[in-house]
Amino acid sequence: MRCREEIERVLSVLRGSRYSISELLAVLLVVKTMEPVGRIILSNILGMGDKKARNIIRELRRRGVIRVTHAGSTISNDFANLLDSIKCITRENYTISILPCSIEEANIIRLRDELVLLLGAPDVLIAIGYSRSGSVDFPGIPSLYKDKLTDLVRGLWGHGEEAIAIFSKPGCYMCCSSFLQALITSSKRSDTMSRSL
């Protein structure tokens, strides 16, 4: 797996926290989508406690990633452009995550397993695929379903290589952020395994 530079810059800001990258990124995705957003709404959307949401906001503010006003949290100007490359879209009661990362077909099962572990809900993930050269593929999915999934994501992907995940839960910011976390984790495991061979 390779991700474009903006993803690496996002990750460099988020690493080293007591919270997982998926928790931090989920908060950022909600703030970016709904800004300004208050802590109570944020914690309700993500299903996390008020105290945890407050602590994550405090940490992200300390890192210079968000600003907090009386109206709620907003993304700092410096960080907003970096988050533009991370797409978390609700369409037809599905959440679609599109990341500017290339994935190999051989790694999709490992990526799927990692994502299911992070989400703790195997029934939420529908499919993992990728876009290359202007077309989309969902390996291992029967063609009847593949056509529906392709129609679902039509017009959302760019022109470069991108990783795509589709979830059965609408508005699932934690799904999108967990997809990035799974890409990172499965990539590290793949690198470690290939070095040991």
Commentary on this structure:
With 197 residues, the chain is of the alpha+beta class. The protein has two domains: 2-82, Orthogonal Bundle (Arc Repressor Mutant, subunit A), CATH 1.10.10.10; 86-196, Gyrase A, domain 2 (2-Layer Sandwich). It has eight helices and nine strands. It has helices spanning 5-14, 21-34, 39-46, 50-62, 77-83, 108-119, 143-153, 173-196, and strands at residues 2-3, 66-69, 72-75, 87-91, 94-99, 101-102, 125-132, 135-137, 162-167. The protein has a five-stranded antiparallel beta sheet with strand order 4-5-9-7-8, with helices on both faces. It has a two-stranded antiparallel sheet with strand order 1-6. The radius of gyration is 17 Å and the shape is globular. Mean pLDDT is 85; it is low at 190-197.
Features:
50% helix; alpha+beta; 2 domains; disordered C terminus; 197 residues; single chain; five-stranded antiparallel beta sheet; Gyrase A, domain 2; 9 strands; Arc Repressor Mutant, subunit A; globular
Q: Judging from the principal axes of the Cα atoms, what is the shape?
A: globular
Radius of gyration: 17 Å
Q: Structural class, please?
A: alpha+beta
Number of domains: 2
**Runs with pLDDT <50, length 5+?**
190-197
What string, H for helix and E for strand, traces the elements in order?
EHHHHEEHEEEHEEHEH
Q: At the third CATH level, what is the topology name of the largest domain?
A: Gyrase A, domain 2
What strand order characterises the main sheet? 4-5-9-7-8
Major sheet characteristics: 5 strands, antiparallel
Mean pLDDT: 85
What's the tally of helices? 8
What CATH architecture of the largest domain do you see? Answer: 2-Layer Sandwich
Strand content: 15-25%
The total count of strands amounts to 9
Percent range for helical residues? 40-55%
